[in-house]
Amino acid sequence: MSETPSVEKVVYLLTPRGFCAGVVRAIDIVELALEVYGPPIYVRREIVHNRHVVEDLSGRGAVFVEELDEVPVNSRVVYSAHGVAPTVREDAKRRNLQVVDATCPLVTKVHREAIQFASTNGTILLIGHRGSDEVIGTMGQAPRHTIVISSLEEAESVSVPDPDNVFYLTQTTLSLDETEQVVSVLKRRFPKIQGPPAQDICYATENRQQAVKHVAPWCDLMLVVGSQNSSNSQRLVEVGKNAGMPGYLVDNERDIQDEWLTGARSVAVTAGASAPEMLVQQVVAYLWRRGFTRVEEVEAVEEDVVFPLPAELAAHESLLTTIANA
Question: Helix, strand, or coil here: 1?
Fold first, then answer.
């Protein structure tokens, strides 16, 4: 009797994955601030939503705080990539804090749109996850004019003072498909509603979601590397499930349960925009030890976006680079 031939198990490693330009910039800012000014460097909230990044920076002298009243007067503080409300900036001035702003430029774009829309005295419907750092920061730009919409049900039921003077904005890390559904409801209910000139969902979020959709037809399972409080990582899991590919969010390879792999012959691996590549490679190594010995890179789209550092650190970066290369 002939033996049944074994079926090769494959890992499809999605590209793009992991750090986006805003995350790279935010981490670089903290690292450079530590090198230029020395520790401690205080950081309001998690610089990016990834436990491993925060623990690494903490070990190098970054001190993470929830609010500015935990920061000693006259100290140096970094704002996280998710942005802050104007009230936070005012508090920093009162405490004479030296601020380095690591807000992602794409989040800053949404803040500017909120201020512009609020100047018309209209209502801003902010599509996003209520209570998230980014949504809190965006709502803070125009709190009296902003209503958060977190579901289709809320889009169907929300009421506004003037239906003819309504705008919408979105959190940058949402599911494109679900956001389009919410926007469609708002446009039906408020035919004169206006949105931003270009979508607020960031390029990295869109690209990673498109990569997931690309491989969903031929993958049995997906593992997304990212922390539980990472919105864009959570959305990748949702996008995969909506495309028929079950998936799990893992902080690292220790979170993987072997029963997930039972019967699977092809596993897609990706990472949220704040997850380090080191953790991805550890997941791939874990899968290799369990028989997934072929790894194929699948590139859905090429990314080449880079955001400049704040002016106060850019000059120091050039100087440190010159010294290092001397």
Answer: coil
